[in-house]
Amino acid sequence: MSLTTSVLGVKLLQEQPYTVTLNPTRRSLYNFINFNRLSDAGGLLDFNPQTSWIREDLTWQAASPAPGLVSI
Question: Superkingdom of the source (predicted)?
C-alpha cells in the first residue's frame, strides 16, 4: 500500500507548500508531546526558557484583581 500523492504524468517542480508552512507547527507540537511524555515519566519540570525575560524582570507585576474578587 502506498501513501504517496503522485499522479501519473505529473511532476512536482517544488516542495509542496503545506510542508513549508505546517512543518514548524508540527515540530513544535512534537516537542510538546515529548515534553509531556518526559514529565509523565517522572522527569523534572522547569520553566520555559522562552519566557525567562518575564521572571528576570524585577519591575514586572501582575494585573490587579477585578472588582468583586478581592477578599476583605
Answer: Eukaryota
Q: Write the DSSP string, 3-67.
A: -----TT----S--HHHHHHHHHHHHHHHHHHHHHHHHTTPPP---GGGHHHHH-TT--PPPPPT
The pLDDT tens digits for 50-63 are: 999 999 999 999 89
Distance CA 11, CA 42 (A): 49
Residue type at 48 in one-letter notation: N
For residues 24 and 30, give the distance between their C-alpha atoms in angstroms, rounded to a whole number. 10
Q: Which residue, chain included where needed, has cell 511532476?
A: 11
Q: pTM score, two decimals? A: 0.36
